[in-house]
Design goal:
Layout lengths: L2 H16 L5 H4 L3 E2 L2 E2 L2 H5 L63 H7 L20 H5 L2 H4 L80 H5 L3 E2 L36 H4 L29 E4 L11 E4 L11 H5 L5 H4 L6 E5 L5 E3 L1 H4 L6 E2 L56 E2 L35 H6 L14 H4 L24 E2 L23 E4 L13 E3 L15
Antiparallel strand pairs: 1-2, 3-9, 4-5, 6-7, 8-10, 11-12
């Protein structure tokens, strides 16, 4: 560059600097990743804003925030200096100080992002802990998988796709992020993502950019999450836009993050509520009954909430937010991620654990932290094993013979929410996890009973299951409960009673006449429900018939003195020591 050119450049630069528009000269000239840089867009991003941009790398001598020269060698003197890209890098694409391609991909980004210390976060973390440093990202599948390149089909186009060259784009930050910002035309503040909205009618039509790949066109049909989210009973990621402020602050006064009851107008379920794209590891998932309830690789480093457990059948209203910087690894257990929405944290103060939100399956959503409270009389072992269910009385667990493998280590095992809830085709070709299903409540089967996905009604959606069904072929293949509880009709003397099975004065006895239709947990043993319970525990407010119950000393020790109900004349007497 001649001295005249340098002089002219400095004059134009100084004029723009005086006007607070240092990046403008560069921004109107640079073309990168297939998108022309707009000065207005760039200057509204964290990279371009003089208020937000940090200068951390010792190789970048310019202290002015938001300057293009922090990343690009402009071949002109700035403040009397003219540094060159490191010799070891050789020629770099787009005149970057560090190559963002090949063996050293992302080092330009790491040069700053490894040195940030924002809002008390650990060194190298982003402001809210979604990005958690180079080491974790470099171990994630989004870095290591050769298929991690922006799908070339969508609009806007992603970065240059060069899989056939030695300088592959796989694993690059810029597969998802445009460092200059991308204005999607919504009028909202531009983001450094190629796609950020969630409705299929949007342009771009991708859930935070995730579905650019996770739609079966990139990475195989087994990772087609978009299809799952479009099913009838699904987390509502496709139902709304712009409710999710990335990231959430973590502060909630009970529902305020999602809108207070009964409105809930900010409620959302985005991909990043359950998955951290910078840390998700390989395809390793949870193995039922084997690895407890600790988060699996696909859920690691996502924040969650842990309740302080109150008295029996009481709403937990004190919840610890497990997120950086206090909890650098986020949620420990899967249920802590689920409780962000399915507890006081996302639902606010409720009565009898029931919200005013009607879920996709047609039932009112309930407070699941309330239901899984370890001080309740009974609960499936999602939070603690049955031997550690504090409120339960002996015998706490069922007998080993009452359970299917691998759930025979009774009393000591814990489980995932997603051991019960997931895709209807999860055992075959579908993407795993509770994204969506063709079955109500996203109930899923197992490899041995793939169609055991129906509760509390049969496959017609109307007919209720009965004890007499338990001896038939349909229950053995379709009833959801038989995934873990085989031969339920013969597992205790109550179920074997002829009258209960329809062989006596009662023609049928529905399962939900005795047991809660929401089998998460109960203030009574063995998930027993009373006729005074509200819907959806008492299905349609007219199904439960028990008014008093006391757990027996064992599965063969039940008698009329353990149950008060309207079923038989000899069951109408009060039960001594009945549970509340």
């Amino acid at each position: 560059m001649t001295e005249n050119c340098r002089r002219g450049y400095r004059q134009r630069r100084d004029g723009l600097r005086a006007a607070g528009m240092v990046p403008l000269l560069c921004a109107v000239m640079i073309v990168m990743t297939g998108n022309i840089v707009s000065a207005g867009t760039y200057m509204s991003t964290k990279h371009g804003s003089e208020a937000d941009r940090r200068v951390m790398d010792a190789d970048f001598p310019y202290t002015t925030k938001g300057l293009c020269a922090h990343c690009h060698e402009q071949h002109a003197s700035i403040d009397g200096q003219e540094p060159f890209p490191p010799a070891a890098e050789g020629a770099t694409s787009y005149t970057l100080f560090r190559s963002n391609f090949g063996s050293s991909k992302n080092e330009l980004c790491f040069a700053c992002h490894e040195l940030f210390s924002l809002s008390g976060m650990p060194l190298g973390y982003g402001r809210y802990g979604i990005y958690q440093g180079k080491t974790k990202y470099n171990s994630s599948i989004h870095k290591t998988d050769s298929g991690m390149v922006w799908n070339p089909d969508p609009s806007p186009p992603g970065p240059p796709f060069s899989a056939s060259s030695t300088l592959t784009d796989a694993g690059n930050c810029h597969n998802c992020h445009n460092p200059h910002g991308y204005d999607d035309g919504s009028g909202l503040i531009p983001q450094m993502l190629f796609a950020r909205d969630s409705k299929d009618t949007d342009i771009p039509a991708y859930e935070m950019g995730c579905e650019a790949c996770h739609d079966g066109t990139q990475g195989g049909a087994g990772k087609d999450v978009k299809t799952q989210l479009n099913k009838a009973y699904a987390h509502p990621a496709h139902d709304y836009n712009d409710r999710h402020v990335i990231p959430e602050t973590g502060a909630s006064e009970g529902g305020s993050s999602f809108g207070n009851p009964p409105t809930y107008d900010k409620r959302h379920a985005e991909c990043v509520d359950c998955h951290n794209p910078h840390t998700v590891v390989s395809g390793t998932t949870h193995t039922a009954a084997t690895d407890g309830n600790a988060v699996s690789d696909v859920l690691k480093y996502v924040w969650g909430v842990e309740p302080s457990w109150p008295a029996i059948w009481t709403q937990p209203t004190s919840l610890t937010v497990r997120k950086p910087p206090t909890y650098s690894d986020g949620a420990q257990y899967e249920y802590q991620i689920c409780f962000k929405c399915h507890s006081y944290y996302g639902l606010g103060t409720l009565t009898n654990a029931v919200s005013t939100i009607t879920g996709p399956s047609g039932a009112l959503i309930t407070d699941q932290a309330w239901e899984f409270n370890r001080n309740n009389k009974s609960a499936h072992p999602v939070v603690v094993s049955l031997n550690n269910q504090s409120g339960s009385t002996a015998p706490k667990a069922l007998l080993s013979g009452q359970m299917s493998s691998p759930w025979t280590a009774v009393g000591t095992q814990t489980m995932y929410c997603s051991d019960c809830h997931g895709a209807n085709d999860e055992t075959t070709t579908g993407a795993q996890g509770p994204h969506g299903s063709t079955r109500k409540f996203m109930l899923k089967g197992t490899s041995s009973k793939p169609n055991a996905q129906y509760w509390p009604t049969k496959s017609d959606g109307v007919t209720l299951w009965t004890l007499s069904d338990l001896g038939g072929a349909t229950a053995g293949t379709d009833l959801f409960c038989v995934n873990c509880h085989p031969n339920s009709r013969n597992n205790n003397n109550v179920h074997q009673e002829g009258g209960h099975r329809g062989d006596g004065p009662i023609s049928t006895l529905f399962c939900v006449e005795c047991h809660s239709a929401v089998p998460h947990g109960s203030k009574r043993s063995r998930l027993i429900g009373y006729s005074s319970d509200p819907s959806p525990y008492d299905l349609n407010n007219n199904t439960l018939r028990i008014t008093g119950y006391k757990k027996a000393a064992g599965p063969s020790s039940y008698g009329t003195g353990n149950c008060q109900s309207s079923c038989y004349a000899d069951h109408t007497g009060a039960v001594s020591g009945a549970e509340p």
